[in-house]
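Risk register update: the risk that structure generation would not scale has been downgraded. Supporting records follow, first protein first.
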Amino acid sequence: MSLDQLLILITVAQQKNLTPAQNLVLGGSWHGQTYTHIAQQSIYEADYLKTTAARLWQMISQLLNVPITKSTFRSVVETYVLTPEQLALISIYNQDQSPSFILKETKNPGNLAIAKFPSPWENQSANSLNSLEYPSGPVPVESPFYIERPPIETTAYQEITKPGSILRIKSPKQMGKSSLLLKIFEQANLLDYHTVNIDFCQGDESIISNLDKLLRWFCSLLGQKLNIPANLEECWASTMGSKVNCTLYFERHLLPKINRPLVVAFNELNRLFKYPYITQELLTIVRSWSEEAQKYAPWNHLRFVLLYSQEIYPEYPLYTSALNIGLPLTLTDFTPEQVNQLAQRHGVCWNSAQIEKLMAMVGGHPALIRLAFYHLVNPLKFNTESMSLDQLLASMANPFGIYRDHLHDLRQHFQENEELNRAFQGLLTEENPISLLPELADQLESLGVVKIDQNFQVTVRCELYRLYFSNAHNIGENSCGKITDTEGKVSSGERLQQIDQEYQGFQQQICHRDPLTNLVNQLGFYQYISRYWQEFIDNQLQLSVIVGSLDYFHLYYQNFYYDKYGKNIGDAYFKKIADLLRQIVDYPGKIMARFEPGEFVIFLPSVSAADALELAEEIRKRVKALGLVHDHLLMGGLPDTITMSLGVASIQAKAQNYPDYLIRTANLALEQSKKQGGDRTSFEPAFEPAFEPAFESIEFS
């Protein structure tokens, strides 16, 4: 069997063409190339190609009923004898070929047709997907979670068929520039074009700050990715100047060796903007090449895609005409219809009111919308049941919620730019759009936190940013109303007593309370801590956490409480344990929560590791002394009464220490208690430079 015949069988079997990544893996593997070498010639990372290849070998193995690996791929295919049925499929395909996702050129380059098989995710629920991708980085071209935003894609596909075209894509980060580039490259590959991604984030500062080094780096990298020897020293004359040398390299060495169009992407072009002279010179060259391509071969092979996330900032002055080239494309927010498409592809059936609720919080931001659906379909790790939309909305502006990294990056940017911070703070309290200085408005729009209307009036982009940055801690300002001593530290006990009073009101809110025990639930626990975390950092408090879990809980709850005596008995036991915790834990500022049915968490600000360990041991003994019995004879001789294992961790509050880090450490200690048979307390030190633990790992039983 030939490679072409195999490609037809795969196409027919999966009812769609191979993706560019799959094509690269098959072609490279057929010719004995390593994944690293294949990656160097493409926009893909080697690890991504390895993952693609693993799935590909499994699919081909099932298709041919023969084990396939990268090393045996070619030999197995070449010796494989096609069955009569397979030969018939290939014959039918060749007679009536209608490949999917192929962009077909017509006599008029502006008139394009796209043919598709039915989408593979149609009539398919999220539960039937083999694996749900975590939303991180560009959306793979074969992913069902790429949502088209007409006419952006078709406009881009048409533009790259024009000789010398320059496509200019500008949008804030995480709006889908890299995902769109993958789709553009996919279409280019199906047209048999060369594609090369030049990512300026990969260039050293010493390179991008020097025009001659930058152009040499560009030519060398382009040559390597096209498998064309650079030979720069032969064509780089010191008397000609960098721009002329670069042009001559293209004209005499590069373009004559390629016999088909070449699409070059300049990714993260904004990294050059702090070097205005270099940016202007580079874009001047690109403009001149584009003009040459309109008239002369072989320049007509060139097409460019420029991607950047900001305009020129005032501290980096540059003639505005430098970026005024090519066809501009601005990536727009998702519409309600597109949000509904994404919901359906996650197996979520929503009405218009639910879609409006989500968009009121995060707008149509593609990355934030997709992350929300991911967590709705895959419950957050600190929830035992699926999270409802209302619960998710309530937690979104939480500094430790699902958008933590995104919000933290924005906060960092504001902390580094005081003028921008002040301008944005002024917007937070305005209900109607207002005017800002053009350069400030542009910077805020480039960050993606504001919208600018047709009258150049500015407003906060969505409620998520208004809620998060309205909290002074999240914008990096000092907290208001904090009780401090003369040295600026929290007064002994006073502030923690105040937190205690606020805690009483907070835990009475239904969305924050565990209805059975009246302790705070897990969502409320994180929201509450987030209110004071910056204050704990400012005052460098020692923070301790105790995590307690009932031993053999799942055996008790299923086999004893439910099956023999019913749910009420088990619920009564939980209430008794919660009441016991209220009696024992008497530290000011403490927060007590029930995370899971049999798991309790206690947060103790300004409590040392030694005191927390002593308290945990007292809790263990007192829970055992409650004498909450179970039918141990039915449980294989387990202890007569319910016992609890506990884990303790302690750390000094610092900016890099999030609450979940402290709780993860306490959970490690809890695991040690469980492994030792339960009914014991363990301490796990938090190993990091900011904290030298006073204890090694300790266990009590």
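Supporting record for the second protein:
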Amino acid sequence: MNTSNGLTAAQTAALQGPCAGAAKKLSAMNFAARLWQKDPELWKKDAAHKKHISGALGWLDIPFKMLPKAGEITAFAEEIRSAGFTHAVLLGMGGSSLAPEVIRGVFQNPKYPRLHVLDTTDPAWISAVGALLDLKRTLFIFASKSGGTIEPSSQFKYFWGQLKKAGVKRPGDNFIAITDAGTGLEKLATEKKFLRIFINPSDIGGRFSALSYFGMVPAALCGADVRKLLERAVAAANLCKNPAIEQNPGALLGAFMAGFALAGRDKLTLVMPEKFKYLGLWVEQLVAESTGKEGKGITPVCMEPLMEPDKYQADRFFVRTSLGTTAEDAALARLEAAGHPVYTINAADAYDLGAEFFRWEAATAAAGAVLEINPFDQPNVQEAKLLTMKVLEQFCAGGKAKAPKPDFAADRVEVFASKALKKDSSGIASYDDVFWAIFAGLKEKEYIGLLAYLPNAPQVEEGLTKLRSALTLYTGSACTLSYGPRYLHSSGQLHKGGPDNALFIILTNQAKKDIVIPGEKYTFSQLETAQALGDFEALESKNRRVLRLHLKHPLDRSLAYLSERIVKVGRPGGKPRGEEAKKAEETEMPKIAAKKTTGKTAKTKLTTTEEYVVVDHPKNLETIHAGHHYAVRVGASNCTGMDISINDQPWQPCRHAVGFWWFDWAHFPAGTHQLVARMHKPNGEYLISKRRRCKAV
């Protein structure tokens, strides 16, 4: 861990500017001292919260407690290697799976069992991992804090059955468990005679458990030196005891996170070196699930390629982890020069991962104190679980769940829209309507959550990456990408408990080949479907804007088609809806071009070019609802800007997204209104649209 306490000029300015209040608040509350005293009133003062928080601060001590156990863990890993195991499969979700996911990407040693992390219910994904295994030489790690999580429980039943089918007489010898004391998993592991049971301290929440048995046992199994990892974590923990915020790596990062979020830069954009690529997924879960509640929250954005500074809105705070000079240095310098805040963490080598686990945990605790929320609970996660069980009951009763009628269906996709999204759109009757519903409903500094209940096959991952890039490029908004059901144990809390500043796109499909779960009346595909439908319902109950796109096979072609449509609609100068704009009545009018001047009366002239500007929503004489938000949409040929005037009032700027210009019209009274748009041509002239009249009731 870099122990240099020098701040850059930009970071010093931030502590004196947008983050000054957060730093002063942490200092005034004596954050560091009270954190190590485990004072729950840093976050909440009511009895219920204080009781919960007091039982969730074991992560502070765990590096110190685990260090003496490093030898025991290493010896166990050597026993497994000597026994001839070639693979290890971790069955877990959320905090039980994401730290091992990071660790295997950093430390996998070819001389040790190859570690796989299975945090899915997708049958194709499970089958793909199963095809890589020699079952008799595979160790399964059943990791669950509660012991009752449905995903790893279902995976256990499947692989236990597969071992028995393979003729393994004592399948318990192929399993170990990591859990808290007194759980159903501890009882199951004892009854099934698992090879080993690791009992974790119960005063650590799942997402804060990276440095406990949940992270260290998988680390040792794939060949990492857990003693060195823990020594780095202990060093970081000691640094985080410093009362001076500027000298405390955890509190300082937390001050930046909360300070920038309160200043409108709530998209925590994580820039990682290739070796630490998956660390962003772990930070995403830690920060999103910890801060996303009470209408507040910080939105992590990970595994997103860097873009030019002008492609970002002023809602980003970049945190870069460095393992040395990289090609990204120049891009980050340009971002900082353009006014985007960039905070750099310098890691000495791969083993500083242990320090980074602790730094981010302490930073999240500090950010929670500034935001005045409890970073150790997840009050909205249970709702999606209950709704999932409700759908599963339907599968168990009749073999299928009650399927809602799609709002639009075609050869590549079926579309289901939430009530909140349909309320603000004119309906979904075509592919382009799908994208209009997204972009018309997306306001400044909002983001898109792309939630994929799909297999992680290479061609699918490539398609998802391209779809995400297209959405980011043509909306100008941040776009997160998460696999379901993984995100239900990660950013799902933020989606439902955080601010209403996102539009969610849930991607589902019908499995080509399903897997039966032994002892259950439902299959893996039905479980995955129930989780997607349950989360859609949970989001809709919070009045969130949600689209579910049910994709047809082959999935890579359907994903590619969606990306192509976005590019077609979003390309500057593009004319969506099959030249609809040119067919509109306004396109037949004479276009008036006004030359910009410096004080003199503008000269006007008639033009007969292919240039056009059309106020196409609201439609002429359309009746709309007064007082509600309405996204005015303007179609235009290639231009550099757009303004709108309503009822001959001063011109107001529009925002550009997916090939259209938009104006967020709010708090308008009942009555008749007139709208006119003014297009900024590249040569400095204006082009004025025909007036559009509408009635608000």
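The first helix runs from residue 9 to 16. On this basis the risk owner (M.S.) recommends closing the item.
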